[in-house]
Amino acid sequence: MSVRHPVRLALGLALACVAIPAIAKEQPDPYIAKGDPVDCVQIRSIQSTNVRDDHTIDFVMNGRKIYRNTLPNSCPSLGFEKRFSYRTSLSQLCSVDIITVLWNAGPGLQPGASCGLGQFQPMEKAAK
């Protein structure tokens, strides 16, 4: 295999390396902590979740209340996959519970890393 235009190839690689950091910009956090953290939240009140990174999940509750869970340890691939499962016999999700990252592997989702939850910190929108 011969490379006819090594300068074009080098320029293309250099541009690709410069473009990658621009894609990975972090968004500012729109929330601030409000009140004391709690150990559990009611599962039936969870409306949706927003995985922010490998350490942080925002639980959006009924009534638009937000609880942020900062995991005590990093959970590999959580921030990339942005989905997880949990199993509990209670009607609550608590700081002693374990989540499992779900990753896309061909025809279905496969279990990934399992990680412990932290406490649930009530959050509110930051003033502009």
Describe the protein in words.
Mean pLDDT is 85; it is low at 9-24. The N and C termini lie far apart (58 Å). It is built from two helices and ten strands. With 128 residues, it is α+β, with helices and mostly antiparallel strands. The chain has helices at residues 6-23, 78-81; strands spanning 31-33, 40-42, 46-51, 56-61, 66-70, 84-86, 92-94, 98-105, 108-116, 120-125. The longest helix is centred in the first third of the chain and has 18 residues, at 6-23. The strands form three sheets. Strands 1-10-5-4-3 form a five-stranded antiparallel β-sheet, with no helix packed on it. A hairpin with a 2-residue loop joins strand 8 and strand 9 (108-116). It has one domain. Helix content is 17%, strand content 41%.
In short:
This protein is of the alpha+beta class and 128 residues long. The protein has helices spanning 6-23, 78-81; strands at residues 31-33, 40-42, 46-51, 56-61, 66-70, 84-86, 92-94, 98-105, 108-116, 120-125.
How many distinct folded domains? 1
Structural class: alpha+beta
Please provide the count of β strands. 10
| Uncertain stretches | 9-24
Features:
128 residues, alpha+beta, five-stranded antiparallel beta sheet, 2 helices, 10 strands
Secondary structure blueprint with pairings:
Layout: H1 6-23, E1 31-33, E2 40-42, E3 46-51, E4 56-61, E5 66-70, H2 78-81, E6 84-86, E7 92-94, E8 98-105, E9 108-116, E10 120-125
Antiparallel strand pairs: 1-10, 2-7, 3-4, 4-5, 5-10, 6-8, 8-9
